């Protein structure tokens, strides 16, 4: 049953595959808002009550004005990857691209270099110190699950056998470092608010129905969690409209996705404001994870997708899959909140990484692709999910940088 449940969660992909073209259609329908200058808003103030402070080396201190999201990828096969694919027992088949036959591993060897400062070196022991007696929870869809797995892999090698555990308790997955009494958790909630796709192992995928004003069932499981990291995007982007309820569960209506997304985020915001203790809890929101479905976007005239791409895009690039209207809604909703939510704007840095998706070296309906499917990347390449080690590790390095900053010892 355990194995089965793991596989079921991963079966999200076929739907996404089915929706690939639709994602494109949706994009044409939305008005793209003009992009403003990117900036990071709402850094945390210092937590009022720290149980323990963590010593931060001078070189790991960051200038608060540094924008970690503006930078470039640099080749670094000395320090990267930060862990080996086969050394982390918690990776699901969906992300283990080398094991699944991917011939090149260059995608593992790039380091994100912000223009204005350096990211602190990821130190798993320091993170565990930060997380002592705490819970860190990732909430969202399968992209978010990869970020959870990445975080577990980044940390688990420093925890000896017998001192760690991994448990599946749908819709949650929980890694625990026992000596630290620290957990890193995942919670399946593809729309954040409630929906008919909430069953972690048996969710409807083609049919979507979101309850825009319902969050309390989920919220009960998030209460009191010390660090919450939310994400929700790709499940909304199936069609330009989405079926949803507001108020009566019987009253199903089609909403424009942007309208529905805003209402859902406001429901979430109200939940945060009524539940979160900003002195004890921290909240992050991940911006959209980009897709690379059409190679003509970065290679005019070509007709492929992300398959067979082995280098990042150099120079400026923003694909049509990353909807700026959604970005703007997030910006507005977060700005209006009475509590601080740190928005990790990872979309641009991941936009460059057309080389880092699972392509045909992932899964479909919980199974690795057959030889025939692998030979047909136009129809079967997954250009939504990411190989691990890979891009989600960088998201976690950035999350780590923020956590370090919040908990550092200001001596
Ligand atoms: C996130 O970054 C992108 C690209 O730099 C930018 O266009 C967008 O405005 C940023 N979003 C927010 C909410 O700051
Ligand atoms: C949010 O963070 C800012 C900047 O760190 C701080 O000045 C402000 O007091 C914080 N607001 C709340 C409500 O915690
Ligand atoms: C690292 O990259 C350099 C430059 O491409 C190459 O010469 C070297 O062989 C690589 N080292 C390893 C261990 O792959
Ligand atoms: C372990 O951590 C949890 C929070 O994650 C906390 O409620 C509990 O008190 C901690 N246990 C001990 C023995 O400190
Ligand atoms: C999955 O959900 C559907 C619809 O709710 C149900 O008919 C089916 O029996 C479920 N399958 C399993 C294995 O639980
Ligand atoms: C909403 O649900 C109805 C009835 O199931 C269906 O016909 C329609 O296509 C759905 N709309 C969307 C946008 O999915
Ligand atoms: C939904 O989107 C369409 C197309 O962008 C637009 O014409 C329509 O006015 C929108 N409807 C609502 C209720 O916002
Ligand atoms: C992959 O790319 C290489 C070089 O860019 C090319 O020679 C090769 O034919 C491509 N393979 C496929 C299957 O598209």
From TrEMBL:
It is a single-pass membrane protein. Keywords: Membrane, Signal, Signal-anchor, Transmembrane, Transmembrane helix. One of its GO terms (cellular component) is Golgi apparatus. One of its GO terms (molecular function) is O-acetyltransferase activity. It comes from the Eukaryota. Residues 64-118 form the Trichome birefringence-like N-terminal domain. Its main location: membrane. The keyword Signal applies. The keyword Membrane applies. Residues 1-26 form the signal peptide. It is found in: Membrane. Residues 119-401 form the Trichome birefringence-like C-terminal domain. Belongs to the PC-esterase family. TBL subfamily. This is Trichome birefringence-like N-terminal domain-containing protein. It comes from Gossypium klotzschianum. The lineage of its organism: Eukaryota, Viridiplantae, Streptophyta, Embryophyta, Tracheophyta.
